[in-house]
Amino acid sequence: MPQGTHILKDRFGRVHDYLRISLTERCNLRCFYCMPLEGVPLRPKEHFMRTEEVVSIASTFVDLGVKKIRLTGGEPLIRKDAENIIRQLSALPVKLGITTNGILVDRYIDCFEACEIRSINVSLDSLMRDRVAAITRRDYFDRIMSNIQMLLDRDFHVKINVVVMRGTNDDEVTDFIEWTRQTPIHVRFIEFMPFGGNRWEWKNGVSLDEILSRATERFGPFGFERITDSPNDTAKNYRLKGGRGTFAIISSVTNPFCDTCNRIRLTADGKIKNCLFSNSETDLLTAFRSGKDIKPLIADAVLNKKAVRSGMNTMEQLSDSDVHSDNRSMVSIGG
Ligand code: SF4
Questions:
Q1: How many domains are there within the chain?
Q2: Which of 65, 60, 128, 77 lies closest to 334, judged by CA?
Q3: Range of 29's domain?
Q4: Whose CA is nearest to atom 5 of ligand 1?
Q5: What is the CATH number of the domain that holds 33?
Q6: Going by C-beta distance under 8 Å and a sequence separation of 6 or more, which residues neighbour residue 211?
Q7: Which of 277, 278, 304 to mutate to test the pocket of ligand 1 (most atoms within 8 A of CB)?
Q8: C or N terminus of the chain, fewer CB within 10 Å?
Q9: Which atom belonging to ligand 1 lies closest to the Cα atom of 278?
């Protein structure tokens, strides 16, 4: 690799300075669109990155220019060494964030503060207790809501990730938006995406345009406004007039935003996914454990990245279930 080459820059000039690390494939919820109904086959512990391997591989990415790390799962906080990993990563010159289902937040909130993690994404697909139980196949609604309130009370920047599914929770879109009027919370509607085992069909999704037309119907054409997105933002952001919070839409299906993609993913078993939808992965962990330099592998993975959705440019291509079934389930990617 010639001197001075930016290893994290791909053929389209995108610099991948945002690393998403999945700490585990395990979760204390069973969301039907994320965890396949048959579950994820449990694998031996040694298949997964140990504490020091997570930290060391992450440090290599930071040396290469990564500026932001988000910890995901499964549910990252169920890992017994999660606090140890968080504390070690927070010592790196990097902005640290976490995506969680919120159940264990009360046990880690002091650690978040100590490690200057101020931005927390909480996955919550309904404001109705019974519906949350139906979607997650567990009953943690009260705990999640009280932990969200605890984060707000301690001035964390809280984003709520909502996967919008027709016939499941799409009737709550405007209720979630209304929540942002008096509460400084940032709701992000995610278009339902295809992954291994989630029986995806776009007819069960709700598009950016439809979400906006529902918002216009409820709040009027002047009841909310478009606000500036931050660079590389995956979401298109809006605010109710006079609202304390915001709402946004992540439209990977109907309006992909790949031209500014800066994300690269590291799975819990130490593989790079250069795109959320990519079926081809690069095994870093085996090379790392055999003492090899992992930088050339990272460089190759970045150089092999496709322009849009791992080559699924069109809706037809995205709708090809054969392609999805080869991809991992969401629980083993971490979003
Ligand atoms: S689909 Fe792939 S290339 Fe597009 S924004 Fe997502 S991760 Fe990036």
A1: 1
A2: 77
A3: 4-333
A4: 258
A5: 3.20.20.70
A6: 164, 173, 189, 249
A7: 277
A8: N
A9: 2
